[in-house]
Structures are given as C-alpha cells and as structure tokens.
Predict the 3D structure of the following.
Amino acid sequence: MRRLAWTVFLICAFWSLRPAVAANTALPLHECRLEHPLEVASVAARCGVLEVPENPAEPAGRTIGLHVAVVPALNRRSHSAPLFLLAGGPGQAASDLYVSYAGAFARVNRNHDIVLLDQRGTGRSEPLFCDYPEDWRDTRDELPAIRQATLTCLARYGERVRYYTSSVAALDLERVRAALGYAQIDLYGGSYGTRMAELYVRHHGDVVQAVVLDGVTYPEQAIGPATPLDGERALDLILGRCRDSPDCAAAYPDLRGDFGALRAKFGPASTSLVLPDPSTGEPLELDFNRGVLASSLRLLSYSSTQASLLPTLIHQAAAGRLAALAAQTVMMAREIRGQLASGMQNSVVCSEDVPFFQGIDRQQLEATYQGTEQLDALAEICKLWPKGPVDADLHAPLRSDVPSLLLSGEADPVTPPANAQRLAQGLAHHRLLVLPGEGHGQLATGCMPRLVAAFLDARDPQGLDAACLEEHRPAPFFVGSTGPAP
C-alpha cells in the first residue's frame, strides 16, 4: 500500500507540474528559470518568444521577439483567469518585477497562472538601453552630456525607437493573450503599468475579469509637471510623521530646521566628497550639490522602509556629515537604473507625456526641493527623440465596469492617492485602499498580498474584508545609526 501511495503521489506531482498552456498554442513554451536582477534568486517558469512586427503598420517588415514567461498556478484544477503583470518605470521588465516580488504573488499563484510579458523595449524583448549620466548628478551641469547621450543612443537604435510606445505595447499584450489561448485574463499594473492596464481595459475590457492598480496614474494625466509638487507633499508628510512620533521627535527636535539648512546651503553651493563606492569599495569622488540632495530625498521617499532613514540622514547631513546620505543615493540610483531601459522610457514619455505638458508654473516648481531639473532634462531629450504612435483616446477619461482594486500610499511621492481618486470617478465597481504613511507601491505591504489574492479570486471589491489594514503601521524611524528605538 505504501508503494502504491508513493506511486500515486509521483503521478499527482507530475500532473501538478504540467504546462500551464497547451503545447498546441501559437506560443510554445519551454522550461526556464527567471533570474533576479541582482542574481540573488531565481524562479522556475515556462518561457517562449512571440515574433511580432516592430511597426504594426508594416506586418511584413522587421520583427522583434517578445519574451513571455508563465508561472503555472499551483492548483492545476483551478479555472481562474491568469494574472498578467504590467511593470512600471516606464522601462522595467515584468520578469524582473516578478522575481523581485515573487513572495508577494505567492497567494495569487495558488489559483492563477502568472504571465510575464517583458514589454517591448525592456528585459529580453528588444531592450532599449541608453548610457546617461548617473541620476544623482546635477542636471543643470549635465545637459550637454544628456544631449550627447541621447544622440549616441539614437545612432545605435535609429528611428525605429518610435515604435515602443504604450499604444503599440497594448497591441502586443493582446497578441500574447490570444497566442497563449486565454479567453479571460486579470491584470496587475504597478506605477506606469497602471497606464498600460487602463489602456488595455479601454480597448479590450471584454476579456478582462479584474484589475489591480498599484501606485495609480489616471489617463488624463501627462506625467512629469506635478512630480516635484507630489514629492514635496510626500516629504512634508514624512517629516510630520517624525514630529508626531515621540522617539523620532526626541532624537531630532528640529528636523525641519535641519532640512531647511540643507536646502539653503545646497542650492548655490556644493561640497566635494570622497567616499567608498557602494558598488566597488573604490574611492568615489562626487560633488554634493542640489542634484545629489534632491535625488536623496526623492529616492528615500519611495517607501516607508527607506523613509525610516531620512531623519537620521538629514540630521547628519545638516551637521556636515554628508557621506552616508550620498552613499545611499548612489546605491539606490544605480539599482533603479540597472532595471530601467531608458530608451524605452524616452519613447513613452516623449510621445505620450511631454507633448501634452501645459500650464507649467516654473516658479512654483522651483520652490520645491526637486525644482525643474528633471523637466528640463526631459525637454532636451525629447527635442531629439522620435515621436511614435499614440492612441487618440490615450488621455481621455476611462469608463469601465471591470472590478478594480486601487492601491495607494498616503505619502507616495509620484502617484499620490488623489490620482486614484480621479480615476475612480469612471470605475463602476472599484475599491480604493490608502495605506497611512506608505509610499509608492503597496503590493508587498503588510497583509496586502492576502487581500490582492482574495480580490482576484472573488472579483468583489466592495465585499473585500480589508480589516487587517487597520493593524498596519509604516516602518518606524531610525533614531540613530543603529536603528529604531527598542
């Protein structure tokens, strides 16, 4: 009997690992492993490549390969719709997003196949990488280098970069869905991926059963001009949270004064630093200036975990100890840069956002810690970058009855809750969850993985029991170099 039971177990185990997609689909898959961008982990999947026209208007012209991976549902008896992941940036690959957050998707993966399409221009789908000056350098001093880097990148890829917009990528997504043989799908979009999800729902809503939007954009939005204002708002909330925390307030009784002193000094002034390079340990020379300070505050505001360091680092920097803040900035900027295909980002932003900028109050933006530097850099790039196909209704309000779960962080520096509230006006069946004190992207926060899985299983946003969020608290602030108070 034991031998029989073992034989049955092996048969069931083999059956549980059968391909998520039938072999006779238009997109054959093979066993593969997806590597973490930092090579610290890998995930088993089934991978394939779908050839599509680079220019949709020329089906007989040049083709590109779209890299697709499917992580089969653990419950092979499940008939739940697969979840397609739409990554952020723009410029991040879906496969990189998943491997970085596989644990947060574990509950979803019990009943849902997870489909990872590296959007054209990212990951292993004809990536468009450009070599720009590092993000922490002062843009005002780097505009000539940014122009030259853009010209060098265009000399490498040519005019074909125009075909890497969201509108063309949405056509790719529909081709992949059909090729894999899925009749209905679910969507998870994070940050820029929410634009992709909204665009797909607009044109293919009949095949979408449920949508999770995390760090929400809204269609009418031209992303860029509001970012310095959103960043200022988020930083103000972080500093206010320290003031309202007894331990943080006791450790840094004049944190706003420290911050004000830094801004006053590193507007016109700069300080030369030599510190160990966070990547190599070799001496790294840099000028600590407004660009470094702005990058530091922006990057450390993205999550409450990173923001927990801000009071200590601001206080140290105000006292003249700048190395720790600078090192954090360099390390985070490089990690983000390594995962974003900047050429694809240019194709999206220069076609879909910059042409729609209007009514920019430069004086108002200059009063923020970020100023207008990023907008000025975008303007230089987009003077040169070819414009691509954009749907006429890309920036039209969205009306949808697809069940939708919207996730926002109260202190999100790039996609504040107001964005989600604006989008929600056109959604007939939605639920908006705002997490106090949190920043950008809520997928892996607290009990959110359980809530997302429950929503996708039931597709009932109003019936979702989100009481567990009442117990959630953002990461406590460091009150010294060793960590939070005991």
User: Anything to note?
Assistant: The CA atoms of residues 271 and 288 lie 5 Å apart. The first strand starts at residue 30 and ends at 35. The radius of gyration is 23 Å. The mean pLDDT is 91.
